[in-house]
Every structure is written in structure tokens, then in C-alpha cells.
Amino acid sequence: MEEKKIMSIVAADGSIDEVEVVLAFEFKDNQKEYVIYTKNEKDEADNVTVYVSNVDRSTGQARLLGVESDEEWNRIKDVLRELAKAE
């Protein structure tokens, strides 16, 4: 059994969330790094909710940013589809 990867996220208000990393990846063509993570919450259909963030390391400390464009979202959705097929 693979060990879960846990990441701490510090919110703007200083609160800290411990989340489980589902997948971290980078698009080589634009050098953008992303992380897909979950708080293991379930929606009304009993599906686990996942979150996607762009990882910015330009300040020396990783910051999670939103996804900027529809093109980025479409590429990320392709990664999620592949991930779902693998399970």
C-alpha cells in the first residue's frame, strides 16, 4: 500500500489545513507546476472533492495560486481523466 502524501496549506487568515496530495505534475512546455489535492470531503453523490492549484515557487516558498485560463483548465481536466482511467 502506497503511503499518503500530506501537505500543509496555510490560508490567508493563518489557519492551517492538512490535505492529501493526489498528484503533482508539471507541463514541460510552459514550466507550470500543479498539485491536485483533497481534504477527503464528499459531495452529495459520495464523490471525493479534489482541488487543483498552480504552484508558484518564485518567492522561494511554494504558494498555491488559482488556475488562470480555460486552456489551462482543459489541460488539467485531461490529466484528471487519465488519472480516473488508471484507477
Question: What topology emerges from the helices and strands here?
Answer:
Blueprint: E1 5-10, E2 16-27, E3 32-42, E4 48-56, E5 63-65, H1 70-86
Antiparallel strand pairs: 1-2, 2-3, 3-4, 4-5
**Separation of termini?**
14 Å
The number of helices is: 1
Poorly predicted spans: none
- Radius of gyration from the alpha-carbon trace, in angstroms: 14 Å
Characterize the overall form.
globular
Q: Please outline the major beta sheet.
A: 5 strands, antiparallel
How many distinct folded domains? 1
Averaged pLDDT: 90
Structural class: alpha+beta
Total strands: the figure is: 5
SSE order, one letter for each helix or strand = EEEEEH
Summary of the model, kept short:
The protein is of the alpha+beta class and 87 residues long. The chain has one helix at 70-86; strands spanning 5-10, 16-27, 32-42, 48-56, 63-65.
Describe this structure in words.
- This protein is α+β, with helices and mostly antiparallel strands.
- It has one domain.
- The chain contains one helix and five strands.
- A hairpin with a 5-residue loop joins β1 (5-10) and β2 (16-27).
- The two termini are 14 Å apart.
- The mean pLDDT is 90.
Key features of this structure:
87 residues, alpha+beta, five-stranded antiparallel sheet, 5 strands, 20% helix, globular
